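>> received
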Amino acid sequence: MEEKKNEKKTNLFDHNSIKHVLDESVTEIVKNKGFPEDGSFNSTGLAITSKLPRFSDMYTLTITSADPQSISAKPPVEFTKSVTKWFTKDGVMVEGLFWKDVEGLINDYVKENKKSK
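>> returned
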């Protein structure tokens, strides 16, 4: 069976490998949503952090303002979900599900400012 070229596959027993694949995808998604990687534009930009504790399947993704003191800074948003939701039993990433979750979080972050006004 031939692997697809753009298919993201990981070793489900390798904690660092799983986190790396997810973090790389987050970078792609954020760029795709129109946020530059260096965040040097009119708004404060995004600071994105992720956690996947050893011996845990719970991945936490947090989006905050790169400059929390700025007048245009927004409240941070985050989710914590099991990585088992985004990978098949063979270790292939189900990118559509992960993209949906991350894009939802970015949308929540972007909307936060509108609620507070």
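>> The chain has a mean pLDDT of 86.
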